[in-house]
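Let us begin with a simple case.
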Amino acid sequence: MARTVILGNGGFAKILASMTGDDCLDKGDPVPDDAEIVIGVGDVGLRKNLFLEYRERVNWVIAGTAIYEDELDCGDLEDYWGLQLMAGAIIQPGVTFGENVLINFGALIDHDCNIGDHCVISPGAILCGNVTLGEGCFVGAGAIIIQGVTLDAETFVPAGTLVVASDDFRKPQRVVRGGRGTAFTVGSPGPEPFLPEATTR
């Protein structure tokens, strides 16, 4: 059996190593010629470059994921080269993936979504039905993309964003109470400064 190594030595690589028992390699470490590869980075561009360099040796990872799709069978993952489905992710019927896709912890991919090559879906993100992501998209933690939205290649969706159209990204607003009676809306320039009333003696 060939040795498997994880390319990367950051937080995501450490999580993979704790699940698989494989070794993590730093940027300058030599990659053994006979080793199979697991990509252990979340940066879209770096993932793509590593995948293209080592494509024939890249493995997939499935970790405690709920898959509700007969066609996405764990025995047929060569059709989804380099796919990584992390624990708690839920994949509904009709979802299609490109190559080298990372669906991170607790993400929800609803029915009939199409996810392009080299996309990264961060923890807790939600793609409602019929969402299409072009190649190399990044969806931040807790972001929500509503049904039917199509995003162009290399679109970056910040964490916590609500995407209601391909050109309409919204940050949820909420009032936050700070110390000394300050209040501000998240997403605004910030709290009004607290200025105590002048006193005289």
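The second case is a distinct protein. As before, the sequence precedes its structure tokens.
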Amino acid sequence: MFKIITFVILLTVIPFSAYSKGKKESEQPPSWVVHSSEQYPESDYLTAVQSGRTRKEAELNAVESLAAVFERTVTVQTTSELNYTSTEKNGNTDIGTRKNIDKQVKISTDAGKLVGVEIKAVWKDNTGKQYALAVLDKKKAAKIYKQRIELNNNAIETLIQTAKTHGNSLNAYKQYRTAYKKAVQNDQYRRKLSLLQSSAARLLNQQTSDAQALQLKYKTIARNIPIAIQVSGDKNTELTSAFEKVLTNEGFEISKENNARYKLHAELRVTEGSIADKNKTMIRYTFKALLTDTETNTAVVPYSESGRQIHFTIEQAEHKMFTTLKKQIEKNFAAQMAEFLEG
């Protein structure tokens, strides 16, 4: 079992001297090691005590233990390995196979997004083992989450109002998509808040936007944004099909009409190059594409690739070029398109 810990939290650590009067470790553990709730009652605090080989490890384990109270994700990764075996007996060889299956269970927590945690005490026993007490003040943490939800709510309202002025456009799509992500973030905050102040969480449930409704909105807009594609120098529509795959994966429609608001125009240029080996042929190519908004006459997403191919014939070199460009479009153009939509 593996633990995945992202330790980027609001963490306050009180100096070690605050809870140790001398360098010599005590043989008897302090009371908080066994009963942390005596000093920090459960009505007002969440606490966790964990140990480790080092002070840092103990503190990390304690914080992760607190995070697990809110959310813990379990993933299982399965790998298989097929081995071939051969045995020889009386001059005859038998071939066999053996399959090994390995399952790895990984547990991840939300430690990286947990706020308001303090390491209140640490202690080292006479064997060198370290203990740490992590404490979360419910009222302080709840206040932070409520503030974050309120900020997101204000941002969502602004995004929605802005989107309404753009109609079925990529700008409106981006606004609603960003609003959706903030609504999802609010759902996460409310789940944490429900463990800290359930009444406040219930009240905020009535005041926040529905993430699913926002997701449906931006997906509906995408279906109403036809994009026309034109590729000069394409062969058997291989490059055109690659662009179509990227855009339809994002939910957009492909238009066969020339009057579509959004147009993606690409051009492939190929030249023959010289090479010392007379038995082989080299080609160089440049490929440039640009997605534009014809209504505002603005460039939306630029994209380009270049390279060369060496093979025995021109046909083989061109085949390799188209195969390479298709993979690059599906990977690199997809990444640039996603980056634009995330912006």
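Residues 314-342 form the longest helix (29 residues). Residues 1-24, 72-80, 102-109 have pLDDT under 50 and may be disordered.
Keep these points in mind for the review questions at the end of the chapter.
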